[in-house]
Amino acid sequence: MIEEIGENVTVLASFADGRLQPVVFKWRNRIYRQLSVASSWSDYEGQYKRVYFSVMTDRSNLYELCFHTRNFQWCLVRIHHD
Predict the structure, then answer these.
(1) DSSP states of the chain as a string?
(2) Is the pLDDT of residue 28 over 90?
């Protein structure tokens, strides 16, 4: 099941080796740690780049995060549930 979220979240990210990667995110007062990036991709909204990450936590859910370069804001786009 896919649940559309579309809410801003707080993300701690790493910029190691010239690559952006989410490490921890907070959504609805819950902290999600031990993120494993399953895939990433990007697109453009006008002149601004958006970078997407599919991440897994210690649970079996897959979370899609998006970083908007227009406003440097992170968004939880959707959750893929079992």
Answers:
(1) -EEEEEEEEEEEEE-GGG--EEEEEEETTEEE-S-EEEEEEEEEETTEEEEEEEEE-SSS-EEEEEEETTTTEEEEEEEE--
(2) yes
